[in-house]
Design a protein that fits this description.
Distance between the termini: 5 Å
Radius of gyration: 13 Å
Order of helices and strands: HHHHH
Largest sheet: none
Oligomer: single chain
Amino acid sequence: MSKLNTFDDFAQVSDLDIQRTMRHVDQNTLLVALKACSEQTKEKILGNMSERVRGFITDEMQRVSSTSAEIDEAQRVALAVLAVVQASDPAGRTRTLS
């Protein structure tokens, strides 16, 4: 198992760890971060949310357009989300499955 190095590493994290760590991330921040990640990561994270939250985030992602500047911002936010996750897990229990 290896540590999380990029936001897209969440595609390889266990469902339980995703659910646990997403509790520490603001939904609007996550919305921005999801704009910059792979479809695989998006599906993995959205699949670990309640139907209500998943619906909200999916609707908002469709509503908001993506300019180059917004994608750059989304990538910065994704790194910030990763930092929040790592700070909330000082023992390093959140790891990728591979």
